[in-house]
Input
Amino acid sequence: GENVEQHPSTLSVQEGDSAVIKCTYSDSASNYFPWYKQELGKGPQLIIDIRSNVGEKKDQRIAVTLNKTAKHFSLHITETQPEDSAVYFCGGDSNYQLIWGAGTKLIIKP
Amino acid sequence: EADIYQTPRYLVIGTGKKITLECSQTMGHDKMYWYQQDPGMELHLIHYSYGVNSTEKGDLSSESTVSRIRTEHFPLTLESARPSHTSQYLCASSKTPGTGGSGYTFGSGTRLTVV
Output
């Protein structure tokens, strides 16, 4: 079955700098990789996703890149702002279910 | 505007009580899931359903049970609450995609405290 590993567990960056969170997956049959943001006291919300037939996808300040050969994908946040502080989860699909990474706590320092 | 609703948002209950956490979605999604999560920590799948009258246990052993009598409703029941059940419970739903995977929509969660 699928196994998704996420790094780092905590990331602290200066406001305005970029943040990168990486995930690796094990199942070469996986072809859908979403990223979710969870703010304090709320459920996770989808912020961006990518399918295996695409190498990169951007939405304003966030982007996701996928390397199918190496089986890893990354979330990139540019020009970080205080409201980007949250826990971020990556996922990979397996048998129509999402397998989750362990989460990354992103801290934006003023 | 939320399309998946969880009630209650917060619950403090005594040991040994029976409780039911409610989850309803208005999107017509066939798949629904329950996760247990300590704040900011990993998501642990405890139950899932692929449709009416279908329920399965997840990866995390749980003393809870679920039912799926209607597409939109997926309640979770604890017959006898214990302090070890103190956690946040998240409900999610998704639709069966044509190909590949599909994103989940999460509710806001129920924060359960057993005293």
